Amino acid sequence: MQEPTFLILTALAGRPLHGYGIIQAVAALSDGDVTLRPGTLYGALDRLAEQSLIAVEREEAVEGRLRRYYRLTDTGAQTLAVEAERLRRRAAAAEAQLRSRGGLAPGPA
């Protein structure tokens, strides 16, 4: 799973969000490392909806524009949990390898 997809699903794990809310949540979750553009986001949302990982929760008109809220489905939550566990295992393996060599040497990254 690509990082933006993981972050979109993570953003929706807490509550339904509209597109701009998802963009803001992804930026916060990634400490600003991942910035989603609207075209990229909506393409991903369409793909995730086709995969039944997310669904439209509701739509509302705000200042004459339709705002669509998305929610994580049960399948999406299960998929996110599996991916989070996979990443945890990878991080644990990396930490074990670093411990076996005596940790990271101080210095520039």
Give the secondary structure arrangement, pairings included.
Layout: H1 3-14, E1 17-18, H2 19-29, H3 38-50, E2 54-62, E3 65-72, H4 74-100
Antiparallel strand pairs: 1-3, 2-3
Helix pairs in contact: 1-2, 1-4
Structure characterization notes:
The protein has helices at 3-14, 19-29, 38-50, 74-100, and strands spanning 17-18, 54-62, 65-72. The model has no long low-confidence stretch (mean pLDDT 92). It is an alpha+beta fold and 109 residues long. The chain starts with a helix and ends in a 9-residue tail after the last helix. The chain is 58% helix and 17% strand. The chain has four helices and three strands, in the order H-E-H-H-E-E-H. The protein is elongated and about 60 Å long. A hairpin with a 2-residue loop joins strand 2 and strand 3. It has a three-stranded antiparallel beta sheet. The longest helix is centred in the C-terminal third of the chain and has 27 residues, at 74-100. The chain has one domain: Orthogonal Bundle (Arc Repressor Mutant, subunit A), CATH 1.10.10.10.
